[in-house]
Design goal:
CATH architecture of the largest domain: Up-down Bundle
Helix content: 40-55%
Order of helices and strands: HHHEHHEEHHHHHEEHEEEEH
Number of domains: 2
Strand content: 5-15%
Strand order of the largest sheet: 5-9-8-7-6
Low-confidence stretches: 1-7, 213-225, 242-254, 327-333
Distance between the termini: 31 Å
Mean pLDDT: 80
Number of helices: 12
């Protein structure tokens, strides 16, 4: 199975249980998100106004309070396995919201009470609210414009909301109504921000990426005459951008990931190139058919995450977002 297919494949029940077990184990920090909170958090990011780097997303999953503490993995294989499961879940939510929003449903815990199954939504709403909180200024206009979309999220996902629920003492039917409203709220929110991003792209603006220290760097000319992001100090075309020269100069570079691939969307083809930065990280570049490149300035902890970032950018912003200027001598068919 190709890497792109693997990362887009929804988690099985067994894999969900595996991820759940890890997130509640002693291997993670005390403030790590549980499975439902993680689902709410990822959903907020996928349906929200800005993109977030996978590395930033993961640190909030590991430590929902401060985004600093990290898990203790048994070995590199476990780290890669758990990270891949999270990224696949992210891609599944993102793919569902973009291509089949009517099928979206939040991942909620359940409990039995008086012979009835009651959905527990506190954790999911707390996760969704955390996704809002990390980018609150950008969310504020929609919160003010459509507060009814956030009623359940604010009631069940914030301390002020919990105090209000304690005061209200809603009956079970009202609680279930709030639970049933979450999916439609997510779809409304996602539709709103998706349209805003489309307008942003139409204006030629580069969407904000949370956790990215610098804007995406684009080289609009054939022949990538920019400094290599690996930090070598060489021109990109003389370093990672030219495999033959680089290998001759230092046989460590470039080490390309097997997840590097050619991708076609809407009649346009790009090459997703993922390669070792020489510092236990992975660099990401997307090259179009004219030799223009989009290079992410930050490295990624695994090649799986780098691929997920490229696929998410293309799915969210469209493949045109990683296409440079067409040379005047080129006739495009």
């Amino acid at each position: 199975m190709k890497g792109s297919a693997l990362l887009a494949y929804p988690l099985t029940e067994t894999e969900i249980a595996q991820l759940d077990d890890f997130l509640i184990s002693d291997s993670v920090p005390e403030e790590a998100m549980d499975l439902s909170m993680m689902d709410g958090f990822i959903t907020a990011l996928a349906s929200g106004p800005n993109l977030m780097m996978p590395s930033s997303m993961l640190r909030w999953i590991w430590d929902s309070e401060h985004g600093k503490d990290v898990p203790t993995f048994a070995n590199a294989a476990e780290a890669a396995s758990i990270t891949t499961l999270i990224m696949r879940h992210w891609n599944d939510i993102n793919e569902t919201l973009n291509r089949a929003p009517a099928e979206y449903e939040p991942l909620l815990l359940e409990r039995k009470a008086d012979g009835r199954t009651i959905q527990i939504i506190n954790s999911w709403c707390s996760g969704y609210y955390k996704g809002i909180a990390v980018d609150r200024d950008t969310w504020n206009p929609l919160l003010a414009r459509q507060p009814e979309w956030f009623t359940a999220i604010m009631l069940y996902g914030t301390k002020g909301g919990w105090d209000e629920l304690e005061r209200r003492q809603d009956i079970i039917e009202q609680h279930q109504a709030f639970a049933d409203s979450l999916a439609s709220s997510v779809r409304n929110i996602h539709r709103y921000w998706l349209e805003q991003r489309r307008l942003q792209i139409a204006r030629g603006e580069i969407p904000t990426v949370i956790g990215q220290s610098e804007p995406i760097r684009r080289a609009p000319k054939v022949g990538r005459n920019v400094s290599c992001p690996c930090g070598s100090g060489k021109k990109y075309k003389r370093c990672h951008g030219a495999a033959e020269d680089a290998v001759a100069e230092d046989n460590r570079y470039p080490v390309h990931s097997p997840l590097s691939q050619r991708l076609s969307r809407d009649g346009t083809t790009v090459d997703i190139q993922i390669y070792d930065d020489g510092k236990n990280g992975w660099l990401l570049e997307v090259v179009d058919e004219f030799g223009n490149s989009t290079v992410w300035n930050e490295s990624f902890p695994t090649d799986n995450i780098a691929l997920a970032e490229a696929l998410n950018t293309i799915d969210t912003e469209g493949i045109a977002s990683v296409i440079g200027s067409v040379p005047t001598t080129t006739i495009r068919h």
